[in-house]
Design brief:
This is DUF5007 domain-containing protein. By secondary structure, this protein is mostly beta strands. About 10% of the residues lie in helices and about 35% in strands.
Length: about 350
């Protein structure tokens, strides 16, 4: 009887062992979560048109669906529209990258530059695990093809432990440089369209002759590049193109107007040493709009108007400059000069 019980126990243990082995074998045959690659994953768009001369990040452009992370992205077969290899987008160039975060509190150009360094990168890249495309600011139309040229075609390999997929015939069509914003430049030809740039905001400024409120259409904004340095100047002109002393805008906080240094004010202009681009990065700082996409300047003064009431006058401009140089922004009162004296 005892032998029978022992034999039954042995058989039971044998079948339990077989069952356990079967379970583990089945688990080995099933894909793990880390091996999932969803065939429906893909790019949200297939054509990319970054503006040359500025670092552009094209993010949030890939649907992973239920694919497991990390995914690995790689650009393959970068070629011209005619199918020929494009060496200008395959070889590395020196590009300026941030190694420490910029926050707008830096006290000198040197402090800003200490947060940047030069690295070797291809001018158009994809984030290895993000899938975000980046076109570096060093990509210019004298190096890469720009619209109206058909541009480039490329493929992207996307892979993880569960598989890989090739996304073919994505299109890169860079637009020509637009060195500043706002602008009236045709992005296909680079020619000026003939339109005018006006202030972003304007209030409380009355005409010297008319005594009537001036509108933003009565002021023309001009962007002039006059050198290859690192400066930004502001000039005010009257209707006859004669300088207006910037000191007349007496309520302006000149030391906090832009993130610039070594302020120099003369009867004809205000000049700062600056680092480019402006803004340096797209984050909100005391020198930008709420989105951080444009620098924001405000010029103001006050006077006594009719009835003895104080009138505060304001002129504001949101702008960006992407090309390094000695730039001046000219504010021209084209219809009537601003009244600075009391009524």
């Amino acid at each position: 009887m005892n032998n029978m019980i022992s034999k039954n126990k042995s058989f039971a243990l044998f079948f339990v062992a077989i069952g356990v082995l079967a379970i583990f074998s089945c688990k080995k045959l099933l894909p793990s979560d880390s091996d999932a690659f969803n065939k429906d994953a893909g790019f949200k768009q297939t054509t990319y048109r970054p503006i040359l001369g500025r670092t552009t990040l094209m993010g949030d452009n890939f649907n992973i669906e239920s694919s497991s992370l990390p995914l690995t992205f790689k650009i393959v077969a970068m070629r011209n529209g005619d199918g020929q290899t494009s060496p200008e987008l395959l070889k590395p160039f020196p590009v300026l990258v941030w190694k420490k975060a910029y926050d707008g509190s830096e006290k000198s150009i040197q402090e800003i530059e200490n947060k940047r360094t030069t690295e070797q990168h291809t001018l158009f890249e994809v984030g290895e695990h993000s899938g975000e495309f980046i076109m570096w600011a060093e990509a210019k139309s004298n190096i890469v093809k720009a619209l109206p040229d058909s541009g480039y075609v490329f493929d992207v390999e996307v892979a993880n432990n569960g598989g890989r997929k090739y996304f073919n015939n994505l299109v890169l069509q860079p637009q020509r440089e637009l060195p500043y914003e706002p602008n009236r430049i045709n992005p296909l030809t680079g020619a000026n369209t003939g339109g005018t740039i006006t202030p972003s905001t304007m209030a409380g400024i009355f005409g010297e002759k008319s005594g009537q409120p001036l509108s933003s259409n009565d002021v023309t904004i001009l962007f002039n590049k006059i050198g290859e340095g690192n400066s930004l100047s502001f000039k005010f002109l009257d209707t006859l193109l004669k300088p207006i002393d910037p000191a007349k805008f007496k309520l302006t906080n000149w030391t906090k107007l832009v993130h610039g240094f070594n302020l120099k004010m003369t009867p004809t202009s205000v000049k700062y040493d600056v680092a480019y681009p402006i803004p340096l990065v797209q984050i909100p700082t005391p020198y930008t709009n709420a989105a951080g996409s444009r620098a924001r300047v405000a010029f103001s003064y006050d006077r006594i108007g009719f009835g003895g009431f104080r009138v505060e006058a304001n002129l504001g401009l949101d702008f960006a400059i992407f090309e390094k140089g000695d730039w001046e922004i000219v504010i021209w009162f084209n219809k009537d000069n601003p009244r600075f004296t009391n009524d």
